[in-house]
Amino acid sequence: MKWEQLLRPGRFELKESQSSPTDKSRSEFDRDYDRIIFSAPFRNLQDKTQVFPLPEHDFVHTRLTHSLEVSSVGRSLGKIVGEHLIHKYEELSDLSSTEIGAIVAAAALAHDIGNPPFGHAGEEAISDFFKFHAYGRVWKNHLSVDAWEDMVNFEGNAQGFRMLTAKNHGLKINFATLAAFTKYPRPSLFVDKDKSRRSQKKFGFFSDQSEHYTLLADQLGIPSDKNAYLRHPLAFLVEAADDICYNIIDLEDGCTLGLVNLEESIQLMANILKDKFSAEKLQNYKYPSQKLAILRALTIGKLIEEAAEVFIEREHEILTGDFDKALTDCIPSSGALAVIQKLSVEKIYRSKPVLEKEAAGFQVLEGLLEVFSKALYHKYYQPELYSGQDKSILRLLPEDFDLEEYDGENAYALLRALIDFISGITDKYALSLYRKVKGIALPGA
């Protein structure tokens, strides 16, 4: 792969950049950032679970605040790496480190945009509906093998790619930003998965968008191996930004909510800071929240330095595809991060509030998918069972869900539209809609 091609602007509707000659204040990649931050899907992240359900505490993170913080860390990583690249490669002289930082910042800003309500439990709930529920499995005979694989393996990363590229309502961001966003550049059905390659751990686009990624990869010069592609190098930085933030900030949230004690949290971050940690200076801060905030900032700063250094050291291997690991698994603090991850699983991710949220998410999303899936199936495939109740249910679909657009010949498109709707709503709206369609609550009650 070559950097001058990897960083070239261009969108699906325009192979080459078409910047306005009167607007020189923003690069193409700054425009990507702005399009994402002003979009409705990004705005909905304010009411989607990060870890803790619908938090009332002022300092506990939602998907929105998490995404903003990941974007900030990503921008820092991109600028540090960008400085190195611009000094190393003459052909990048027209770029600035700020532009490279903007690519990573925009991709990181969108990294969770495809996540459904109730976090990762929501992903599993959607998959389980098609695997196990009668009105999920009934669609199997109407789908191809790869389309069915998409249904039984819902993936927020692939849903995000779909939301960014959809013909009617996609955000039309640049190829470089899209590729940096795509941490797992392969389809769901991929029989020769190499477990040693981080980029093949999950999948990054659904079967109906394989052509989209092929075009993107061709434009940027990203090679493929069978159905999987190499990662765009900046995707490693997006992943690192996410890893850094959720490890440190989930720990901070866990401490704020009393799931991890303050002394333990301080020691875990001190293990990363090493000689940069000063217990004496920490005593200057009176409140636990202040102690956590200063340590969090210092720790994230240290991890940014380490991740950028690994990227720069392994840059050639990243370009050739020989390096395919998480940067945070290769930094000096990887052992300390592993300890934090282990503790977070035991004390935070398996805490009672989180498990209760996950259990509720399964019920809510299964219930919504059941009533809408059944109504759609009756309408298009069992009209003799299409009832007044089904008609009322389908009237609750959003305005842009044009039922006249679909027919019994394209079950996949119909289901994709349904999942777009269900995965795009917020936690609170999902709960409210579930209560209404199940008759648990009436409008206004």
UniProtKB/TrEMBL annotation:
<dbReference type="Pfam" id="PF13286">
    <property type="entry name" value="HD_assoc"/>
</dbReference>
<dbReference type="InterPro" id="IPR050135">
    <property type="entry name" value="dGTPase-like"/>
</dbReference>
<dbReference type="InterPro" id="IPR003607">
    <property type="entry name" value="HD/PDEase_dom"/>
</dbReference>
<feature type="compositionally biased region" description="Basic and acidic residues">
    <location>
        <begin position="1"/>
        <end position="16"/>
    </location>
</feature>
<dbReference type="InterPro" id="IPR027432">
    <property type="entry name" value="dGTP_triphosphohydrolase_C"/>
</dbReference>
<dbReference type="InterPro" id="IPR026875">
    <property type="entry name" value="PHydrolase_assoc_dom"/>
</dbReference>
<dbReference type="Pfam" id="PF01966">
    <property type="entry name" value="HD"/>
</dbReference>
<protein>
    <submittedName>
        <fullName>dGTPase</fullName>
    </submittedName>
</protein>
<dbReference type="GO" id="GO:0008832">
    <property type="term" value="F:dGTPase activity"/>
</dbReference>
<dbReference type="GO" id="GO:0006203">
    <property type="term" value="P:dGTP catabolic process"/>
</dbReference>
<dbReference type="InterPro" id="IPR006261">
    <property type="entry name" value="dGTPase"/>
</dbReference>
<feature type="domain" description="HD">
    <location>
        <begin position="63"/>
        <end position="247"/>
    </location>
</feature>
<keyword id="KW-0378">Hydrolase</keyword>
<dbReference type="InterPro" id="IPR023293">
    <property type="entry name" value="dGTP_triP_hydro_central_sf"/>
</dbReference>
<feature type="region of interest" description="Disordered">
    <location>
        <begin position="1"/>
        <end position="28"/>
    </location>
</feature>
<dbReference type="InterPro" id="IPR006674">
    <property type="entry name" value="HD_domain"/>
</dbReference>
